[in-house]
Specification:
By secondary structure, the chain is an alpha/beta fold. It folds into 2 domains: 201 residues, Vaccinia Virus protein VP39 (Rossmann fold), CATH 3.40.50; 101 residues, Putative methyltransferase TM0872, insert domain (DNA polymerase, domain 1, Orthogonal Bundle). The chain has a 7-stranded mixed β-sheet, with helices on both faces. β2, α4 and β3 form a beta-alpha-beta unit. α2 packs across α3.
């Protein structure tokens, strides 16, 4: 279904409720004539709020590889929509002739419609194909992954990306069941997981398992690392980086980048001059901003969100 610009601008709550909408867009400190990037268009809530604050000469570049997101883009000449993974941030800005931007926003959560559309296979709460691809054109789905990966690999992924306590037991059960018949639906995977999980923690474990497989199938951590690593190169001095993370590894990457300039490091470089570390960002918020009780009540999916804000300083960064 295709929606007109007017329909899209009136009510998108059915599609996705943006998390920390005003705190995140406020944090961009928008210049009405500036150039901004929303690397996670999703339901478009953050992009539309950015556009509402831009003047006639402002510009917004939005990334999203999901065709559903592209179909719901607003009809606005100030918007350039890039139908690719945000890992190619620097490449496409160069292609568009943009050397530096004034702000970058990344909301790393999964759009509500992904969970609510059974055919996309992101949720254990409805029967559907075991897919989980953000970009349906990707070669391998979650069903392909659980069909091919070893028990050891599956267990490692469940532990790393889902923090699943019974990862080894669940992985072994997946391998045992796939030997009898292919695991192709969300219901099959749900039943395999619950068969070896205590009843009182089944919902939590299922959420962790599905999250871990989604992250693996879409290569989310590698893509995030590449995108974040490009931000010091494309943000102008004084430009803002705003990241909303929901997973501890995502948040750690953003935190590390701000503190050290490297997503893989936990501490700032030690070769500081007169106590000033050579890092490309200054943290704007000492602690991450989190949703208040009212927002969590209205949108429970916001409960794990953490918002970090940094400003590009004048340090050279290679």
């Amino acid at each position: 279904m295709i929606f007109s610009a007017q329909e899209m601008n009136t009510d998108l709550s059915f599609y996705h409720t943006p998390v920390l909408l005003h705190p995140s867009v406020d944090a961009l400190n928008i210049n009405p004539d500036g150039v901004y990037v929303d690397v996670t268009f999703g339901g478009g809530g953050h992009s539309r709020e950015i556009l509402s604050r831009l003047g006639a000469h402002g510009r917004l570049i939005a990334f999203d590889q999901d065709p559903d997101a592209y179909a719901r883009r607003p009809d606005d000449e100030r918007l350039t929509f890039v139908r690719h993974n945000f890992r190619y941030l620097q490449h496409f800005l160069t292609y568009l002739g943009i050397e530096k931007v004034d702000g970058i926003l990344a909301d790393l959560g999964v759009s509500s419609h992904h969970f609510d559309d059974a055919e996309r296979g992101f949720s254990f709460r409805a029967d559907g194909p075991l897919d989980m691809r953000m970009n349906p054109a990707m070669a391998k789905s979650a069903a392909d992954y659980v069909a091919e990966a070893s028990a050891e690999e599956i267990a490692n992924i469940l532990s790393l990306y889902g923090e699943v306590r019974f990862a080894r037991q669940i992985a072994n059960n997946i391998v045992k069941n796939r030997a009898q018949q292919p695991i192709t639906t969300t219901t099959q995977l749900r039943d395999i997981v619950t068969a070896c999980t205590a009843r009182d923690v089944q919902a939590k474990v299922l959420a962790q398992v599905f999250q871990a497989l989604r992250i693996q199938v879409n290569g989310e951590m590698d893509a995030l690392s590449e995108m974040l690593s490009a931000t010091p190169h494309v943000l102008r001095e004084g430009g803002r980086l705003v990241v909303i993370a929901y997973h501890s590894l995502e948040d750690r990457m953003a935190k590390n980048l701000i503190r050290s300039g490297n997503v893989a490091l936990s501490d700032a470089p030690t070769d500081a001059i007169y106590g000033h570390a050579h890092v490309p960002f200054d943290s704007v918020t000492r602690k991450p901003i989190v949703p208040d009780a009212d927002e969590i009540e209205a949108n429970p999916r916001a409960r794990s969100a953490k918002l970090r804000v940094a400003e590009r300083n004048g340090e050279d960064w290679q």
